[in-house]
Specification:
Number of domains of chain A: 2
Largest interface: A-B, 91 and 90 residues
Radius of gyration of chain A: 21 Å
Oligomer: homodimer
Shape of chain A: elongated
Number of helices of chain A: 12
Order of helices and strands of chain A: EHEHEHEHEHEEEHEHHHHHH
Chain lengths: 288, 288
């Protein structure tokens, strides 16, 4: 008789991230009962019909009762309130983990809210989709993707190990790093590009001839701006929760774009060629 | 007995743009002999083996002799030199057209170089690929894509009509606009995004932990930076040939990014949400 890795799992927020994890763990047969919690009953119904969750409640403190693992998959801006809400209902053996895109801010919030802060394992799966809701969840979203865990010095190593096993069962590769380093790396590779794509589309959206502008946009433009179709609330929250690292990355970037501007302005073809070649070489090396 | 639209076509530059046009016109059976010209004999051999061109020469002035239509598909930086080189060999009935990404600069070069400037029809197919060379040419590259022609007040309307028919035979939709307007629109939708993608990848490439940074980059980053794998020489030339419009677009963009920076800095969630929502709505409307 095999023992289940997670007899009872609570998923707070059944969007694509939460639903995908539940579907993956169900498929891997490492989870017993999955309790879902969210604000939209319609969405919770979808999650249940899809077999991601076994039952649901609109009350987060009810959802976490008796849960071995609690996975928080709500927008960053709601994490603090949810942590406060579930804190009294958590047992001292419950492990709490999350899927938020920035880590230093949620660690602060968890430290304030939780009696057993040492059972909180901050995490971030590097996966996602522009689509939202339980409908967008897929069981192989995390297959061969990376999950970054950012335990603090006071985090129980056994809790970190448990969460590591959970993500591995979902098909992911798990790595650990400091929250500060995580936030810097993600600011550069994810948060900054989202700002640039949102910024470009918004910039064009406010031009007089917006219809025409988009009519002549080619495939490269579509690729470049795909991430501007991401969820605005989620991204507002990420910005507000990773401000320092994002501001650093934006500052560095604007300076670099000014160098390109200067080279174009001065018709300095050698500098432009050097920048473009270095960029192409780097991207071809890492992304192909 | 049907008369061919173009009994003899000269393609100067048999990269993906030139090769694709030749393949499309051959497939549509509207072209007789296609003469290719380029600097690399190996590449010309590939174009010939693929059936895009019937014969080739390394001498552009030889290539255009007796040609009804001459299509220039070399990087923008080589257009001026090629125009000067072919000018003496062109017959007064030859139509010259091009596929360059910026239009005001080549019009100036053509006006200086060509005796029969009224037979020059500036053009730009909004299509392409990050891949280069005759090997990358495909017969349906222009299918259902737009081609913008930017005739000047002195351009023969019959020449414009001929070039329109040529692109339509290749499957494209043809529209005309002024060269200035073209350059502004393309600066916004193509040239600016390329600068931003090259700039981002180069910015990250120069960081200490570049390997790690790219290791944690997700799918959105790959999409966003795909255009940074484009040909550096081609893009240097585009920058130098569409300087004014590109500088305008970059200036406007940096200002808009500064507004986002300010909103992040001031933790102004309402402004961020407004920008992100407008961007998402616009992109979803035009790109889906």
């Amino acid at each position: 008789m095999s023992e289940l890795l997670i007899p009872r799992l609570a998923i707070i927020g059944v969007g694509s991230i939460g639903t995908s994890l539940a579907l993956a763990l169900k498929k891997a047969q490492v989870v017993g009962e999955v309790v879902g919690c969210g604000r939209s009953q319609d969405n919770l119904e979808v999650a249940q019909q899809r077999g991601a969750i076994d039952r649901y409640t609109l009350d987060a403190s009810e959802a976490v009762q008796g849960a071995d693992v609690v996975f928080l998959a709500v927008p960053m801006g709601s994490m603090g309130a949810i942590l406060k809400q579930i804190a009294p209902a958590l047992s001292e053996t419950s492990i709490v983990t999350d899927g938020g895109s920035s880590k230093t801010s949620i660690i602060q919030e968890a430290e304030q809210a939780l009696r057993h802060f040492n059972r909180f394992v901050p995490g971030h799966p590097i996966a996602g989709t522009e689509r939202s809701g339980a409908e967008a969840g897929i069981s192989d979203l995390y297959q061969d993707r990376r999950v970054l865990l950012t335990p603090t010095p006071s985090t129980d190593s056994s809790a970190t190990e448990w969460v590591t096993k959970m993500w591995q069962a979902a098909g992911a590769t798990v790595e650990t790093m400091s929250a500060e380093h995580h936030d810097q790396v993600l600011a550069a590779t994810s948060h900054l590009p989202h700002m640039l794509a949102f910024g470009l589309v918004d910039s064009l959206a406010r031009m007089d001839d917006v219809d025409e502008i988009f009519r002549y946009a080619a495939g490269g433009f579509r690729d470049f701006t795909r991430i501007a179709s991401s969820d605005p609330v989620m991204w507002r929250d990420i910005c507000l929760n990773n401000r320092d690292a994002l501001l650093d990355a934006m500052q560095r970037y604007v300076k670099d774009v000014r160098d390109i501007y200067k080279a174009v302005d001065e018709a300095d073809g050698d500098t432009l060629l050097e920048i473009f070649q270095r960029a192409k070489t780097t991207r071809d090396k890492f992304c192909n």
